[in-house]
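U., I forgot to send this yesterday:
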Amino acid sequence: MDDAAQIAAAAEMRRTLGLTGGQLVVNPIPFDAEIPRSTMIPVVEQALEEAESRQISAKAVTPFLLQRIFELTEGRSLDANIALVLNNARLAAAIAAAHAA
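Result:
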């Protein structure tokens, strides 16, 4: 489904049919905020290697990786994540509006 009205209609259909469970909605990062895969893969691999070599584990891994990726991308990863969150909020609002209509 490519628009909010279709997604809202599918959710309504699930409810009408009495189907339980969730509905997965996947929303890509805006094209202008995307960091190319060819740039990100080496950065992520480097950050993972550094975490392993420093024996960072459990709950400390995610904050370390986010910070290290932020540093290696000179802040671009944070900008990309913010753009993705805003894009998700826009879609969620559009789905809610379509559902309420």
